[in-house]
Structures are given as C-alpha cells and as structure tokens.
Amino acid sequence: MKKEVWRFIDTGNSSPSFNMALDEALLDWHSEGKIPPVIRFYGWNPATLSVGYFQKVEKEIDMDAVKAHQLGFVRRPTGGRGVLHEHELTYSVIVSEEHPEMPNSVTEAYRVISEGILKGFHHLGLEAYFAVPKTAEEREALKNPRSAVCFDAPSWYELVVEGRKVAGSAQTRQKGVILQHGSILLDLDEDKLFSLFKYPSERVKERMRKAFKDKAVAINAISPRKISLEEAKEAFYKGFAEGLNIDLEPYQLTQEEIAYVEKIAKERYESDEWNFKR
C-alpha cells in the first residue's frame, strides 16, 4: 500500500520570530488546503528563551538575565513553560485535526505524533519510552506545575530515558489544524537555564535545580558516544517516517512564502505587545 506523502522542511537556524511565524504560517497554509501535512526541523540564532502562550513574563522570567546572556526571546503560540533553545533539535508537526490517523483527544494525538520522536531515539540507540502519570497525585501535579521551567516534569506521553525527560513538546489547535512543536535536547547548560527564571528565594531555586537534575537530561549526558546535530536529524527524520508510517518529501520555501512568514514575524513575534502581553 502506498504511504501518504508529507512535506519535510529543514530551515536550519533562524531568528526566534521567524521560527514561530513559520510554524504559524504552515498551520495557515495547511488549514487552507495549500500544503499537505508537514514535519519541520529547525534551530535558533541567537539561542533563545521561548515562553508558553499563558506564561506571565514579568512574574516568572528574569529579562535582565536573558539580555545578559544575549539570548533571543519569544512567546510561543502553544502552551507549556519556558524553554532554552540552544543545543537542541527543534521539530514541529502540522497536521489536520480531521486526519484519519489523528485521535480527537489532545493527549492521544500527542502520543501518535510523538511516536515519531520515540522511534528517533531508538535510532540513536537510546531506550526511550512514554511517561504515563500513574497515580492520581501525579496526574493532579500536571495541572498545577510549580515551576516555570519546561523540562521540570514529564507530562502525559512525554519522552523519557532512564526515568528522565529527554524531549519537551507543546500543542495548539487552531483553524482545524494541530501544531505540535518541541525540543529534543542534545546538550544543556543548566547554569544558564536556571539563571533565566525568577524564584521566591535562593533556597527555592536550589531545590528546583536539584529536582530538575532528577527529572530531565540531555541526550549527550546519557549517550555512550557524542551525538551530533546532523546525526540527530537523520535519526528523527527516519523516526517520523516510521512512527507516522509516511514518506517525507523535502521542500524549500518559495520567496513569496518567506515574505509572508517575515510579515507575521514582524507584526506578531517581534512585537512587545505579543511577547510581554501577560
């Protein structure tokens, strides 16, 4: 049986505003029937702190530290918590809610899409598996995350190796389309990460940091050999094709498409009104 063909776009390193604008544009184009479903890989220049759609920047983020580290800053259209995009492979998946393989429930759709990431880890020789909160207490904790840091706790079907989270993802549904994007950590500068958030006290910061070490880990901290970005791309490219049972067709954006994305980047993702609105 012939497999469905999805587009594959690798945009390399782009600005934070362009990255978020392109995910939004792909969602628009897919909702209008202009493009098939898409898998996209990307990176960040400069390294960037992204915050979730509902996060309160003033309360949670130390913007002086963001500036001191010369990081980019952007608010995502998806929920979730703060993510430092530095040594990682970032991915996005754009697919219709009506797609025959997509369950109606957000959690189950998340599992189906994340199957591609799971297979990618297996291609790297890592025994990843899905985290499923077992107790009522764990499930309740997901509704009330204490920390502004994304990798602080695995949620439903988050990917875990040796009990620690290795990829963090977030999802939004708009115009009948699912947009899921996330970070696959290759390496992590913990000092930098923890300097970017506000804490009630140093003691709380240290406690959070210690807890974080037990809950999250980067690929190269557990892999027996160093994995490069190129190798990770290859593994997750294969992983998505296998996990979603699709063929991927590489695609280059046209000049018109790039101009459309740059317009969204400027109007929304570079505006203080969007980035600092909550």
Notes on the protein architecture:
- The protein has 278 residues and is α/β, with parallel strands linked by helices.
- It has one domain: BirA Bifunctional Protein, domain 2, CATH 3.30.930.
- Helices cover 40% and strands 25% of the residues.
- The protein has helices spanning 16-31, 57-60, 63-68, 106-123, 136-143, 190-195, 202-215, 219-222, 229-243, 255-269, 272-275, and strands spanning 4-14, 38-44, 48-51, 72-75, 83-85, 88-96, 128-130, 159-161, 164-174, 177-185, 246-250.
- The strands form 2 sheets. The chain has an 8-stranded mixed sheet with strand order 7-8-9-10-6-2-1-11, sandwiched between helices. A 3-stranded mixed sheet has the order 4-3-5, covered by helices on one side.
- Strand 9 and strand 10 (177-185) form a beta hairpin.
- Helix 1 (16-31) crosses helix 10 (255-269) and helix 4 crosses helix 9.
- The chain is globular, with a radius of gyration of 18 Å.
- The model has no long low-confidence stretch (mean pLDDT 91).
